[in-house]
Amino acid sequence: MWRVDVDLPGRPYPVLVGPGVRKRLGEVLPPGVRRLALVTQASVPWTLPDELPVARFEIPDGEVAKSLAVVGELCGRFARAGITRRDAVVGLGGGVVTDVAGLAAALYHRGIPVVHVATTLLAQVDAAIGGKCGVNLPEGKNLVGAFWQPAAVLCDTETLRTLPAAELRSGRGELAKYAFLGVGDLETRSIEEQVAACVAVKASFVVADEREGGRRALLNYGHTLAHALEAEGLADGRPLRHGEAVGVGLAFAARLAAHLGRIDGEDGDVVAAHLRVLHALGLSERLPAGADCARLVSLMARDKKATDGLTFVLDGPAGLEVVPGVPAEVVTEVLASHPREPAPRNGDGPER
Ligand code: GLY
């Protein structure tokens, strides 16, 4: 088992990584907790140790669960079940569960403890760590949320063994991001070591800048386009998984940085390095066949980091940095020349 501590001053918490760590829940609960409000989904096949009384709350599967309506309903169900401040929420599942459970815990009774038991690669390397929890609005992804640090996170790598291939691929999109954030070589490491290494990098960013005033924003590398692709996919009924969208967003960010003259030419080393990482992880850099550039640009302008025009995390001579005010014409031009998936032939479903 690996242990990474998120050393926030006065509120440190452990992240345990390894097969079977979900069974260590009792060891990481805050002292005095009497009852658990377990938030999960019907599709999550895992159970937790039954050392304490548990009230179980299922939320719908998929990104549709990330809504204020679901969080409000969950808080109402907590109230009807008599959940108090002496109890703890446990989010058991992937990033949707940890977002919804985290936000409900942040809001219910003005905040009760939460422990995340992350069962997807994406949640283990990113979503469950660092206290960000948010839901979507029709206007965009994660536009409403809070910073609510968990009391602990359990990344049970046993749960990855039965994860559907598409879900694993999605998690690898976030792994690809960490490849550009200093995680070092991932290829020679076991999955436990990969997860622990990403958690350690993420913990260092969170400790340095919990509320995303500066450095933490670099964790959004690839995410400006990714969130727009996800929102577009949701709107037209062809949702793209978060990590797959991040893969496309990383390749696009490298090409945009090259186009802006921040790094070498568009076919140069840095863009090629991005493609190598994506392909080694089985990810595509291509936009969906039907992606609408104008709509993507308007969605990116609504991104919550877009405080001063279109804002991206981009590579440059000093490494990654947040770059506001990128002209919409430039973004549109680079988007229009970005590789695309071939259009499906008649009768083919969307291949994602
Ligand atoms: N997923 C980016 C962050 O937690 O800051």
Write a short abstract of this structure.
This protein is an alpha/beta fold and 352 residues long. The chain contains eleven helices and eleven strands.
Q: Mind telling me which CATH architecture of the largest domain this is? A: 3-Layer(aba) Sandwich
Biggest pleated sheet: 7 strands, mixed
Assign an overall shape: globular
Q: Mean pLDDT, as a whole number?
A: 92
What CATH calls the topology of the largest domain is: Rossmann fold
Gyration radius from CA atoms, angstroms: 20 Å
Stretches where pLDDT is under 50 for at least 5 consecutive residues are none
Helical amount among residues, as a percent range?
A: 25-40%
User: How many DSSP helices?
Assistant: 11
Structural class: alpha/beta
Strand order of the largest sheet: 1-2-9-6-5-3-4
Question: What is the assembly state of the chains in this entry?
Answer: single chain
Estimated share of beta-strand residues: 15-25%
Total individual domains: 2
Ends distance: 34 Å
What this model shows, in words?
The protein is of the alpha/beta class and 352 residues long. It has two domains: 2-208, Rossmann fold, CATH 3.40.50.1970; 221-337, Dehydroquinate synthase-like, alpha domain (Up-down Bundle). Helix content is 37%, strand content 18%. It contains eleven helices and eleven strands. The protein has helices at residues 25-28, 68-80, 95-107, 121-127, 165-179, 191-208, 223-235, 242-259, 269-280, 293-301, 328-336; strands at residues 2-6, 13-18, 36-40, 54-58, 88-93, 114-118, 132-137, 140-147, 152-156, 310-314, 321-326. The strands form three sheets. Strands 1-2-9-6-5-3-4 form a seven-stranded mixed beta sheet. Strands 7-8 form a two-stranded antiparallel ribbon. A two-stranded antiparallel sheet has the order 10-11. Helix 3 (95-107) links the parallel strand 5 (88-93) and strand 6 (114-118). Helix 4 (121-127) runs parallel beside helix 5, helix 7 crosses helix 10 (293-301) and helix 8 packs antiparallel against helix 9 (269-280). The longest helix has 18 residues, at 191-208.
